[in-house]
């Protein structure tokens, strides 16, 4: 950096010297003090000696250095010529411009002196004429001013003489403010001349003022008078120099008692809002509740202003009264929103409260009512948002429970389908409505709401998150899956219809697949962002988590429906096997009635799922004939009949059991319990599987004689055909039915099955009887 700065300084110095030599007439001036200290080899010095410089260069330098110096000097000479030429050009243009300017100035100034002389003559003429006018009008002006002063004095004298009459008129019209103004205006004159010229006027005026003071004192403590009127009376008394400090405690107590009438009570809030909205379109003087409340608060504010002037030491108490009224407003607001309130009504009450706060804040800015209102408004708005979500959950719950679900309605109609459609509509329409409500809050432009928009966005996001979590828990309570702390909310699990559980399961699927994505889009469009403080107690809206919650809830509820239905059917099965004495059972004459009850229960399940769940890909899973597990009863009985005709009953029984056990060893492995799908066939199949498994366990707990075993054989054989028509997994059903027969044979004391012809005969008889019963029950 130092090496670069040195050449620049040298060049600048050379340019200055060049300019100095160009403009300075004396060469000694251009060099200044530098020529004194210049050395003999300084080429820019005025004392430079070229011959001496060349001799020195020849002695000290060789040919190569001399050539380099020659080239350097040639370059410097060329640069200096160029710089000098540029300076001449630039300054030439400036000289031309300056010359033109001087010429224009000379032409513009020409004739100005004559004009100035003419102007001076005119000014002197105007001044002389003005002095003449002033001299001629001086006496008249003095006379007019004297008359004007006399007129004002006469007016004052007339006002003093008319003062008693004026005061009496004010007393009759109760215009005490004008009376006090007249009297205080006349007091300076009455004090000076009241004992001489205006003695009678002063006496009459004082008598009238005494009456006015009494009337003002009466008005001050009258309960029928408004707060503002009493405050005005106190101000007028103070202007009349009446001592009012002794009345301070009583006046402030009256002011405090008036707070009760200024409250916006919850039962009156709706009327205030309705009238306030309707009065906006009316130009007439409408003295409705809103206008009356506004006037009352305005009077309260003016009273505080007056008392503050009258009693300067009462500011703290006035601050407390203003804060107390503000606090009561928001406390009543919290009570008001506990019932169902629309966003429009909520905003209407909020505007009224804010107008009251503004009125009082103008009078008492030191009370910091705006800050107090902002804090209370945040609490109230947050409660309103939470209450709105709570009302939506209650609407959904009421929609689910308003239908009287009983078995007859499910069999005869489609009540479950109606409940599901109504609940879906309640969820969709309800969420759309509260979005519209919250948009009204977000669009509100009043001062206090503008500051809370970020908080509102955060509360709405978190509100939806909490709402769906609460709705999930509420579904589990309604289904009886979990218990509720509030006994009035739900029913006991015994009273809950299984169809409602199925509706809740399908509704959870609908919320997961349709509602939550729609809510996510709405939030992204209108309620994105928000204040981080709103999420301090939990996360914001997380759709992925909510989808997982409702997916798990739908599976839980579907399984709960299956368990509920299975338990109900298991009661029938348990009664069937615990009631008779199987050791002394008689020979089977027909298929037992529990089979009809079992099939009837399965038919009810089928009708319920048909209303709620969609059909799946109905693929029947059959056993292959090669493993021997899918052989029908008829073919097996025919084979036994043809191959073992000569055997005795005991030999036949032992052979059949041996074949059954041997077939089990070579059976293809069957997966009985698979994942339940949200289809009609999957749910019905799972219920049947669980019931047959329960049937097998009940069989294992009993001990049968020959007839009891034969009865079980007959009932199971009859069940095979209708169950296979109902379910999608025939292989598993076949397997479970065989397991029941095997379990019964293992618990039988004398295993001798029914002969196939007898078995077929009893089954055909049951089928004919059922057909006849169905024909008789069909309405004509």
TrEMBL record:
Signal peptide: none annotated. One of its GO terms (biological process) is endocytic recycling. It is found in: Golgi apparatus, trans-Golgi network. It comes from the Eukaryota. Coiled coil: none annotated. GO terms for cellular component: cytosol; EARP complex; GARP complex; membrane. Keywords: Golgi apparatus, Lipid transport, Protein transport, Transport. Residues 273-292, 616-646 are annotated as: Disordered. Residues 273-283 have a biased composition (Basic and acidic residues). Residues 626-640 have a biased composition (Low complexity). InterPro entries: Vps51. Pfam families: VPS51_Exo84_N. Acts as component of the GARP complex that is involved in retrograde transport from early and late endosomes to the trans-Golgi network (TGN). Component of the Golgi-associated retrograde protein (GARP) complex. Belongs to the VPS51 family. PANTHER family: VACUOLAR PROTEIN SORTING-ASSOCIATED PROTEIN 51 HOMOLOG. This is Vacuolar protein sorting-associated protein 51 homolog.
């Amino acid at each position: 950096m130092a090496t670069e700065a040195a050449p620049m300084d040298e060049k600048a110095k050379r340019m200055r010297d060049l300019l100095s030599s160009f403009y300075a007439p004396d060469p000694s001036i251009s060099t200044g003090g530098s020529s004194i200290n210049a050395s003999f080899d300084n080429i820019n010095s005025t004392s430079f000696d070229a011959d001496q410089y060349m001799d020195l260069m020849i002695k000290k330098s060789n040919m190569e250095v001399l050539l380099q110096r020659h080239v350097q000097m040639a370059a410097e000479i060329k640069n200096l010529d160029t710089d000098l030429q540029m300076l001449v050009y630039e300054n030439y243009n400036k000289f031309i411009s300056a010359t033109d300017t001087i010429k224009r100035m000379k032409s513009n100034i020409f004739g100005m002196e004559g004009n100035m002389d003419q102007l001076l003559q005119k000014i002197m003429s105007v001044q002389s004429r003005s002095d003449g006018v002033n001299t001629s009008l001086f006496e008249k002006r003095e006379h007019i001013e004297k008359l004007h002063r006399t007129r004002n004095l006469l007016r004052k004298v007339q006002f003093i003489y008319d003062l008693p009459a004026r005061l009496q008129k004010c007393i009759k019209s109760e215009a005490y403010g004008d009376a006090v103004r007249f009297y205080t205006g006349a007091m300076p004159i009455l004090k000076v001349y009241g004992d001489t010229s205006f003695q009678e006027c002063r006496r009459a005026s004082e008598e009238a003022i005494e009456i006015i003071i009494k009337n003002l004192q009466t008005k001050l403590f009258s309960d029928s008078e408004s707060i503002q009127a009493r405050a005005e009376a106190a101000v007028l008394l103070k202007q009349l120099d009446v001592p009012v400090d002794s009345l301070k405690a009583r006046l402030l107590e009256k002011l405090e008692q008036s707070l009760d009438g200024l409250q916006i009570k919850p039962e009156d809030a709706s009327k205030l809002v309705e009238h306030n909205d309707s009065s906006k379109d009316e130009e007439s003087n409408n003295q409705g509740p809103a206008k009356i409340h506004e006037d009352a608060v305005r009077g309260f504010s003016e009273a505080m202003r007056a008392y503050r002037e009258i009693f300067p030491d009462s500011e703290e108490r006035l601050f407390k009264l203003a804060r107390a009224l503000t606090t009561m407003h928001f406390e009543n607001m919290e009570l008001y929103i506990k019932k169902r309130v629309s966003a429009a009504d909520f905003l209407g009450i909020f505007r009224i409260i804010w107008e009251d706060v503004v009125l009082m804040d103008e009078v008492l800015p030191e009370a910091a009512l705006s800050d107090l209102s902002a804090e209370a408004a945040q609490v109230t708005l947050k409660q309103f948002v939470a209450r709105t979500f709570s009302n939506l959950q209650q609407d959904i719950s009421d929609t689910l429970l308003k239908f009287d679900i009983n078995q007859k309605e499910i069999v005869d109609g489609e009540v479950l389908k109606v409940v599901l459609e109504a609940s879906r509509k309640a969820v969709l329409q309800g969420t759309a409505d509260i979005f519209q409500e919250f948009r009204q809050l977000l669009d509100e432009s009043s001062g206090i709401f503008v500051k809370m928009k970020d908080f509102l966005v955060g509360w709405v996001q978190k509100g939806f998150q909490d709402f769906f979590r609460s709705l999930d828990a509420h579904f589990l309570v309604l289904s009886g899956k979990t218990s509720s702390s509030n006994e009035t909310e739900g029913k006991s699990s015994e009273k809950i219809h299984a169809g409602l559980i199925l509706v809740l399961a399908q509704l959870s699927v609908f919320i997961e697949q349709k509602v939550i994505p729609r809510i996510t889009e709405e939030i992204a469009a209108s309620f994105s962002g928000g204040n981080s403080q709103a999420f301090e107690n939990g996360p914001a809206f997380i759709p992925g988590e909510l989808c997982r919650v409702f997916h798990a809830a739908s599976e839980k509820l579907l399984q709960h429906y299956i368990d509920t239905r299975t338990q109900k059917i298991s009661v029938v099965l348990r009664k069937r096997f615990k009631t008779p004495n199987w050791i002394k059972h008689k020979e089977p004459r027909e298929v037992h009635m529990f089979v009809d009850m079992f099939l009837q229960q399965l038919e009810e399940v089928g009708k319920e799922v048909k209303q709620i769940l969609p059909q799946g890909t109905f693929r029947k899973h059959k056993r292959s004939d090669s493993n021997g597990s899918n052989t029908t009863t008829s073919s097996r009985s025919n084979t036994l009949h043809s191959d073992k005709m000569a055997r005795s009953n005991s030999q036949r029984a032992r052979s059949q059991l041996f074949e059954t056990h041997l077939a089990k060893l070579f059976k293809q492995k069957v997966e009985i319990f698979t994942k339940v799908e949200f289809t009609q066939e999957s749910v019905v199949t799972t219920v049947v599987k669980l019931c047959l498994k329960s049937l097998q366990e009940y069989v294992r707990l009993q001990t049968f004689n020959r007839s009891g075993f034969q009865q079980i054989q007959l009932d199971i054989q009859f069940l095979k055909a209708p169950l296979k028509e109902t379910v999608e997994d025939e292989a598993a059903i076949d397997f479970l039915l065989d397991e029941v027969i095997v379990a019964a044979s293992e618990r039988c004391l004398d295993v001798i099955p029914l002969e196939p012809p007898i078995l077929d005969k009893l089954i055909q008889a049951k089928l004919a009887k059922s057909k006849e019963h169905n024909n008789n029950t069909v309405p004509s």
